[in-house]
Amino acid sequence: MKMKRIEVVAAVIRRDGSAFATQRGYGDFKDWWEFPGGKMEAGESPEEALRREIHEELSAEISIERLLDTVEWDYPEFHLTLHCFLCTLDGGKLHLLEHEAARWLSYEDLHDVRWLPADNGLLPLISADLLEVNPELAGFIETEIIPRYASFDKAHREDHARAVVRRALALAAHYPEVSRNMVYAAAACHDLGLAADRATHHLHSGSIIRNMEQLGRWFSQEEIETIAQAAEDHRASSDHEPRSMYGRIVAEADRLIDPVRIIRRTVQFGLSHYPELPKESHWERTLEHLHEKYDYGGYLKLWIPESPNAAKLEELRRIIADKAELRSVFEQAYNDEIQ
Questions:
Q1: Domain 132-255 adopts which CATH fold?
Q2: Rounded distance between C-alpha atoms, residue 127 and residue 122, angstroms
Q3: 168 vs 43, 66, 310, 315, CA distance in Å?
Q4: pTM to 2 decimals?
Q5: Residues with Cβ < 8 Å from 2, sequence gap 6 or more?
Q6: Which of 168, 189, 195, 330 shows a CA-CA span of 20 to 30 A to 226?
Q7: What residues contact residue 74 under an 8 Å CB cut-off, 6+ apart?
Q8: CATH T-level topology, domain 4-113
Q9: What spatial distance separates the first Cα and last Cα of the chain, rounded to whole Å?
């Protein structure tokens, strides 16, 4: 029996580095997320159908920039052809007339929701658009590199890698002479060496990058060496300054100085690597690490003047100096992690 075929259109509406997504409120895929759109009607072009669907679903008008991709996907009961377009909103607000919820998702947020299978396949291309990097490189990074972080400790999972990527490219915007694609690759690969060990993971990351044959599709050997050195130089405890602006950018992006998050990550690391220690020992270990790395005289150094890390570091140092407040943040993180 021939499978039923359905042809639909979808809009990736972007604003300020984020894409608009909607949550279904009906059917077999209730509560799953998708890009808004719908079925084409007889005689309609994909663009005509998309404008009509967005008006019907969101009471909004859009400008269609270009076709992002056409996805062919077999669902259990039908074959779907999905034409997805990059779009912008023509003023006004979006009103949910058919969906139960909606979100503006940044690059880091794209993987926080449960996507319909066909829409999920668009994420590498959407990431490339939001990050302004080569789409083919993004396809490789997002499907082959970022998933490797899933096996690392809780403080260095995929969310960490994506946060470093996002921050690195934000910093790179201040330096038009640097290649966004090289920054992207270096940031995405900077912690791959954790698969070997933590103490020398930065060196292992450099070795992995040098031996990654796929990178030759987008970079010269000289550029690959620069990317590898950037990964090697990212570690805060490194005994030398980063050898290039790429190393400075990745090192600064890896700082991710959020006082509460840093304390939580310190607790997470301790629980992951020393689960046998009692609570007070984890407290002492947290104190020692924070003083050694982040306090005045600590080994952490900041490299990019445009980074917001300087103010955040001062805030963290204030918390470190206030032992009662630090203990309160530690208690919250510890209790959350052991539950």
A1: Hypothetical protein af1432 (1.10.3210)
A2: 9
A3: 46, 27, 16, 22
A4: 0.83
A5: none
A6: 195
A7: 3, 80
A8: Nucleoside Triphosphate Pyrophosphohydrolase (3.90.79)
A9: 51
